[in-house]
Sequence to fold (480 residues):
Amino acid sequence: MVKICCIGAGYVGGPTMAVIALKCPSIEVAVVDISVPRINAWNSYQLPIYEPGLDAVVKQCRGKNLFFSTDVEKHVREADIVFVSVNTPTKTRGLGAGKAADLTYWESAARMIADVSKSDKIVVEKSTVPVKTAEAIEKILTHNSKGIKFQILSNPEFLAEGTAIQDLFNPDRVLIGGRETPEGNKAVQALKDVYAHWVPEDRILTTNLWSAELSKLAANAFLAQRISSVNAMSALCEATGADVTQVSYAVSKDTRIGPKFLNASVGFGGSCFQKDILNLVYICECNGLPEVAEYWKQVIKINDYQKNRFANRVVSSMFNTVSNKKIAILGFAFKKDTGDTRETPAIDVCKGLLGDKAWLSIFDPQVTVDQIQRDLTMKKFDWDHPLHLQPMSPTTVKQVTCVWDAYEATKDAHGICILTEWDEFKNLDFKRIYDNMQKPAFVFDGRNIVNVDQLREIGFIVYSIGKPLDAWLKDMPAVA
Ligand code: NAI
Fold:
């Protein structure tokens, strides 16, 4: 029986391995992690991450051919194929701080693999890593190998949180990069055989190692660039009276452009886009390509601009101050159908409003109070370290309360910011909400999900990103 071990039981390792176990009953899959609470949660009824469809997959295989364990060394030793899906945060200090990927966790995983292995293994990079990481990993493994042979493959993951299970069941493509040697080709074939259990062969692409590594960074950069492009347009729409929804619809009808990823919003978030672009920028700089680096840097700059612009719009609309005003925040996760808050634009918007001394009442159907308090007190990039290494929040932010209901959050509020596009926010009883708010009552829709005309009819002053401005807002001071 082929044995697979995956180091890192996170948003990628957990769902990916659960789907491999489901689709390949003849393969035994162990997912290991140094975090005891995380593994305990994977072995419980309350999985550590919320992802539609994940519960059912885990329930079907757990205890049969899918195991979650903290005994990292045992499972690595026994495995034929070792996936490494640990976090690869942005470096916070030293050379390349604020840009380069921090490969501490990856390196320590590689050294451990070399230490405990007693048989030949295929080591698969599942984490997103800088180009040429495989070469560094290869060196660590071969210099410590005691005669054991390792083949390194790059198999970046393209799943999107919120649709991870569907993406894994039916991927646009699976990408496998390997050394172009007989041993490398054999290893690529072995991994191809795993995916071939359910992925059509023409969707399994094979490339050299460096192309696979770079393709993942390139794909994320292209996706984020589309969001920044439409967000840049949203600012121009507000200035000219055009409607960004109409503009992006018209643009999307061009088959060369297509409809996906063209919704204007308060900005992109998630653990990957910013980190991977910063990483790309750093690689460009290191390779003497400052113009290329500058080009990709703009994608992040526009995203920061959009988040600031939104927070400034809230403050300027409300007579240039939100001091001591209650603002309801609807949605904190970086997108709907996930509880993930890593790099969520809600953090920047909330910090902006707290900076102006607002009182925030936050509701998100999937994010805990503890997580929100942690996010609002944590330093940039600290979130991307294993939980036990993250600084504990020393004090809670006293201007923030978290509630479990949108009506409670909005009661007596002066304004509402919609920051995540949860479906349930579309069907709220806005008349009831309006009646219970301070007047004038404001809605700032950072996801363009409300019916602006209906809300204006109720009496709200509405700001919706990239839409023609409310007469009220036009008279307010311009926002930076
Ligand atoms: P995560 O932070 O949820 O999970 C990583 C896990 O690795 C943590 O539970 C941590 O405790 C564990 N870990 C760290 N060092 C370890 C070690 N030495 N031994 C055992 N366990 C260790 O991260 P996530 O989101 O799963 O991402 C992992 C990688 O996949 C990153 O490189 C990310 O860029 C990439 N990726 C993430 C996607 C996403 O949607 N979250 C999508 C595609 C790629």
About this structure: Residues 105 and 314 are 40 Å apart (CA to CA). The chain has two domains: 3-199, 221-464. The mean pLDDT is 94.
